[in-house]
Design goal:
globular; single chain; mainly alpha; about 70 residues; two-stranded antiparallel sheet; 5 helices
């Protein structure tokens, strides 16, 4: 996936290691992988579970498709 950039915003594709760090509650690892500070209420398991309605096994099998919501 390509990073999308504008003058004020950079959208970077989420990665499997980042999702795994969030699910494991490893905030420092998630921030390191994202190259960003996370707001206090995020990341959390509930957000990931709402964003990705598939199992971790499905995401791990096809991360480039499943992390972007493709079938």
């Amino acid at each position: 996936m390509t990073t999308l950039r504008t003058a004020r915003l950079e959208l970077v594709p989420i990665t499997l290691p980042l999702v795994e760090a969030v699910l494991a509650g490893r905030r420092e690892a998630a921030e390191s992988l994202a190259l960003a500070r996370m707001p206090a209420p995020w990341p959390n398991r509930e957000l990931i579970e709402q964003a990705f309605a598939v199992s971790m096994e499905d995401i791990q099998t096809n991360p480039s498709g499943r992390l972007w919501g493709h079938a």
